[in-house]
Design brief:
96 residues, alpha+beta, Membrane-bound Lytic Murein Transglycosylase D, Chain A, two-stranded antiparallel ribbon, 29% helix
Length: 96
């Protein structure tokens, strides 16, 4: 395979890939190590989505959602259920 064909294929693959996005947090000014804010949502009535759907909506892992919401049905949470979205993090004890 020609080198130019490999470069063209690599360029096409990179060109069609989505860029990664991440949640950004401002650093605390008061010397605290806590960043972010926890959120609380209510699952709509007649819900047909699994807990993983709500985790993805808030860019959270399913295991984090399960730890923050013990007892919630993973496969089909009931409408009206209050979910805690754990978006508060602790920074390492180092110079910021």
């Amino acid at each position: 395979m020609k080198l130019s064909t490999l470069f063209a294929a690599a360029f096409a693959i990179v060109g069609f890939c989505n860029t990664a996005s991440a949640v950004t947090y401002p650093l605390p000014t008061d010397g605290s190590r806590l960043i972010g804010q926890n959120q609380v949502i209510t699952i709509p009535e007649g819900n047909k989505q699994p807990l993983e759907y709500f985790a993805a909506e808030y860019q959270m892992g399913l295991s984090n959602m399960l730890e923050a919401n013990p007892g919630v049905d993973t496969f089909l949470p009931k409408g009206g259920t209050v979910l805690n979205i754990p978006q508060q993090l602790i920074l390492p004890d180092t110079v910021h």
